[in-house]
Amino acid sequence: MSIALSSPFGGDVAALQEATRDETTLRRFLHGLPGVDQVGAEARAAALATRSIKTASKAWALDAAVRMVDLTTLEGADTPGKVRSLCAKAMRPDPSDATTPAVAAVCVYPDLVGVAAEALRGSGVKVASVATAFPSGRASLGVKLTDVREAVAAGADEIDMVIDRGAFLAGRYGLVHDEIVAVREACGSAHLKVILETGELATLDNVRRASVLALLAGGDFIKTSTGKVSPAATPPVALVMLQAVRDFADATGEVRGVKLAGGIRASKEAIRYLVMVSEVAGPRWLDADHFRFGASSLLNDLLLQRHKLARGSYDGPDYVTLD
Amino acid sequence: MAAAPPFEYAPAPEARETARLRSSYGIFVGGEFRAGAGETVPTIDPSTAEPLADVAEAGDGDVDAAVASARSAYESVWRDLPGRERAKYLFRIARAIQERARELAVLESLDNGKPIRESRDVDVPLAAAHFFYYAGWADKLAHAGYGPAPRPIGVAGQIIPWNFPLLMAAWKIAPALATGNTVVLKPAETTPLTALTLAEIIAECDLPPGVVNIIAGGPAIGQALVEHEGVDKIAFTGSTEVGKLIQRSVAGTDKRLSLELGGKAANIVFDDAPLDQAVEGIVNGIFFNQGHVCCAGSRLLVQESVVEEVIAKLQDRMTTLRLGDPLDKNTDIGAINSAEQLARIRELSDAGEAEGAQRWSPPCELPARGFWFPPTIFTGVSASHRIAREEIFGPVLSVLTFRTPQEAVDKANNTPYGLSAGIWTEKGSRILWMARQLRAGVVWANTFNRFDPASPFGGYKESGYGREGGRHGLEAYLAR
Amino acid sequence: MPAEDGSESRLRVRKTYKLAIGGAFPRSESGRSYPVEDSSGALLAQAAQASRKDVRDAVVAARKAFPGWAAATAYNRGQVIYRVAEMLEGRREQFASEVAAAEGGTADAALRSVDDSIDRIVWYAGWADKFAQVAGSANPIAGPYFNFSVPEPTGVVAILAPQESSLLGFVSVLAPVLCTGNTAVIVASERRPLPAVSLSEVLATSDLPGGVVNVLTGFTSELAPWLASHRDVNAIDLTGVAAGDRADLQRAAADNVKRVYIPAGEDWTDEPGTARLTAFVETKTVWHPIGV
Predict the structure, then answer these.
(1) pLDDT by residue for chain C (292 residues), tens digit each?
(2) Residue B364: partners with Cβ closer than 8 Å, 6 or more residues away
(3) Does pLDDT of B321 surpass 60?
(4) Is A37 a catalytic site residue?
(5) What pLDDT does A8 receive?
């Protein structure tokens, strides 16, 4: 069919491992990656947003999106009661419609993982915990690793870590890499999402470099944002990250995931992102093992849209539950 | 790599009724719609090969009537109307196009075969924008750099092609009117409908009768217009072959002429190009409008060190192109405009294979009725192959390689054409160096197929002469 | 007021004339107003008497609106300015009666003045996406560099509008500032401010982002010095200031090297040249090497 595939990273798995040998080599490798033309990336993202998803494909997309939600609460004011309420919603999002699937995971701070694990036991909904001095990441490695271990011990299935953006922007890619490796180890069997905090990285070139860096260091997922900084997930950023996991899969055969978090509130946006996943990365990424939305209010909008499709008329906030 | 996605897109058709299609159309002369004296010919929908409407084409006497009407309107009304009043007519037309945008977009897709997404997002908005842009020049000609009191030429005969029917009409009419000329325009025979709807819009804007005349018809009508003694200026967009005929025809007369002809543009990708965006640019360059674009990036010149990578990504990207019903909002590739054009594309593609290039298309289901051709690339193409020399005017890309910037320039310039070129590289100085070396009227760097009424467009060499768009676009319509 | 045709009288709802700042219509923070008379000396309405704090707020609003307006495409700015003309055309008779009341003269003259104002706005709408082609250039410098110059908006422009021509003059000093991407704080004619206030309502319904134009009414001699000395104002148009009063303002403007525009006696019915367009732009010249 096609001409012999050539890795977009300029080499096979061995070459990629060589790139992480030391900080200088890693910096040269990352700086040598093809750049991202911002205008071109934005244009492609905008073109993908013109896809019109109706009827049966819309119904599929809404259900898929629900299944991909990491239902999230990350507030200083979180209590066990709030977390239990959220977990109940995660397992049964819509009491009025039993066909509604459960979400992928609940995402909380480490000290509430135990509460969530208890509430979700046996349901299939995962417990995800932020860690590593979320959201700023400004703490010693020792503190960050303890944060991870405690969350895992309390029952977290998934860890959402933050990278050291200060180190990244200062060009200390080796330090960023090594921290991710250490966190990965501390995760044990829990899977690791690496939050890049793309809003602080500022350029799409940096998003691409950080994505590749996180994948090389072993992250199972790369994730856009903590949700505490704006801008968070945007279509051009998602495009670059999806392209990165796609290229990584082409080079290594490993299919890593992407999580978009922060600022996604409307079903319309979620569906646009699913189109982007499908057309940029590929159909292999269209499940909760490879793609997630980190969201809180998105879930209710997905439910309202499901109602509209089913009933043929518009609903209001009284017809979905608060969590 | 990618099989058909499980995420199927349900059909999302734009409603055909929006086009407000009528059963028959005539010609627009002296502010009136009437049947032409020529044959009544059906115009067909190329996506189904079914007839859309009858068109009573221009015939004996109609060209004379149209030119006479344009002359009368020029001398009695339009030439001496203050620029600010001409401007306001053009602003009105721009606004009216915006108001009827959806109707025009659907009609364009029906008559031409292009995807509704393109007619909606590119053709119609740009057509309105051209009228907006040139409206503003009508009363500022003294500032345009053509002398303190530029004057119009007179009656302009304008002949436009079938690939962007409404947009080409806007490109012709707007600058002509802004500068004070009057117009007789002949749309392409296979795509008259949006031009005739534009005539309706023009009439509703109360443009004085005869300032714009639109006569549908075939090559004989075009020839009559070109040869007519009452026409002072000819503007033609179409094939190089016909452009040469026209240039011969006006030789020895005082007629002014501008030509916008064919192309075989080189889209040049360097080893440091932003790769994903370059692939988008390649796709856009040749598959936008089914490749029916004079400035299409139909020759891909890839630096040899990255050709495998680029082709692999390109092929992957092509598997997500959706070919089908032009009225479906998710369609990327629409129908070929006519049986004739399809035959030509097939002939040249067959020649490509026969000459030894490797042909590839993504798996693509072609509808049973209508004129269709899958997006196709040929690799292993050399400069001497027909598919590297001749304009195919279809969704077919020829891939060649180069080693150094100079070689890229040499290969890009090694053609009688010179309309456009693309450059993909991260290095700014190289962009500017390449741009300076390339013998092409439009150079796109890290982008492709971008158009704006403020941006002059036109070719070198056999791609024609004269520029449309921008301040430069005024010159063709001003007396020297 | 009773209806003039003698029919059964209906009490009219009188309009309160306020300032326009940041897309809102506040009264002066000082709470002051002053009487505006028509050409025969009869009372027309009370207008807000703006204070230095209103000036301060207006400049803040104009500065806030500047990045967005400057970053809009020229095409978009042209569309918005054309929309202003559409909105004004729709209120032609209203404005004619306001201009006649303010300036005196015949109804026909007032109507012509309104029509000229609409056409003036259309003229400037058409400049937005062309001015760079006339004022910019690719420069043929002697070396392997690509060198180009582009006009960019200077920023916040303070304008003292003409004292006599209450609409046409007002529009003629405001439109060129907007067309080139600047935002404006404009002080209307002191004695004939009402058409300007009504125009600010037209602007608010024309897709013009809030803060791009801020209209103040009050005493020119009170407000002008605050604008002239304001360090966050980039340029000032002294058209509405009496010739004898300009020097002090020019001196104040020197404090942050403001660009000062002094008109050379204009007939507002003449077609403007490009002086008011070039007055409020900065020219940026960029060099880039040409080489493989």
Answers:
(1) 445 555 679 999 988 999 999 999 999 999 999 999 999 999 999 999 999 999 999 999 999 999 999 999 999 999 999 999 999 999 999 999 999 999 999 999 999 999 999 999 999 999 999 999 999 999 999 999 999 999 999 999 999 999 999 999 999 999 999 999 999 999 999 999 999 999 999 999 999 999 999 999 999 999 999 999 999 999 999 999 999 999 999 999 999 999 999 998 889 999 999 999 999 999 999 999 999 9
(2) B321, B323, B374, B375
(3) yes
(4) no
(5) 62
A250 as an active site residue: the answer is no
Q: Do B and C have ≥3 inter-chain CB pairs under 8 A?
A: yes
Indicate whether A307 pLDDT > 60.
yes
What CATH code is assigned to A37-311? 3.20.20.70
> Quick one: CATH architecture of C37-289?
3-Layer(aba) Sandwich (3.40)
Tokens found for residue B358: 């490797």
The answer for residues whose C-beta is within 8 angstroms of residue B441's C-beta and 6 or more apart is B418, B419, B420, B456, B457, B458, B459, B460, B463, B467
Question: Rounded to an integer, what distance in angstroms lies between the CA atom of residue A181 and that of residue A219?
Answer: 8
User: Check: CATH 3.50.50.60 for B266-445?
Assistant: no
Residue of A nearest to B327 (CA): A52
Q: Do B309 and A37 touch (CB under 8 A)?
A: no
Question: Is A89 a known active-site residue?
Answer: no
3-state secondary structure chain B: CCCCCCCCCCCCECCHHHHCCCCEECEEECCEEECCCCCEEEEEECCCCEEEEEEECCCCCHHHHHHHHHHHHHHHHHCCCCHHHHHHHHHHHHHHHHHCHHHHHHHHHHHHCCCHHHHHHHHHHHHHHHHHHHHHHCCCHHHCCCCCCCCECCEEEEECCCCCHHHHHHHHHHHHHHCCCEEEEECCCCCCHHHHHHHHHHHHCCCCCCCEEECCCCHHHHHHHHHCCCCCEEEEECCHHHHHHHHHHHCCCCCEEEEECCCCCEEEECCCCCHHHHHHHHHHHHHHHHHCCCCCCCEEEEEHHHHHHHHHHHHHHHCCCCECCCCECCCCECCCCCHHHHHHHHHHHHHHHHCCCEEECCCCCCCCCCCCCCCEEEECCCCCCHHHHCCCCCCEEEEEEECCHHHHHHHHHCCCCCCEEEEECCCHHHHHHHHHHCCCCEEEECCCCCCCCCCCECCCHHHEECCECCHHHHHHHECC
Q: Where are the domains of chain B?
A: 16-261+460-477, 266-445
Which chain A residues have a beta carbon less than 8 Å from that of B125? none
Enumerate the residues of chain B whose CB falls inside 8 A of the CB of residue C126: 87, 135-140
- B169-179, pLDDT tens digit by residue? 999 999 999 99
Sign of CA dihedral B116, B122, B123, B128: positive
CB atoms within 10 A of CB C219: 14
pTM above 0.90, yes or no: yes
Task: Check residue B10 and give its pLDDT.
Answer: 87
Residues in chain C with CB shorter than 8 Å from the CB of B143 are: 134, 274
Quick check: ipTM above 0.90? yes
Over residues B77-108, the pLDDT tens digits come to 999 999 999 999 999 999 999 999 999 999 99
Residue C264: predicted pLDDT: 84
B312 part of contact set with chain A, CB < 8 Å:
yes
Q: Does B428 touch chain A (CB under 8 A)?
A: no
Residue reference for tokens 């195919």:
B392
Topology (CATH) of B16-261+460-477: Aldehyde Dehydrogenase; Chain A, domain 1 (3.40.605)
C-alpha to C-alpha distance for B425 and A206, rounded to whole angstroms = 18
Q: Minimal Cα–Cα distance from B57 to chain C, Å?
A: 37
DSSP A278-292: IIII-GGG-STTTEE
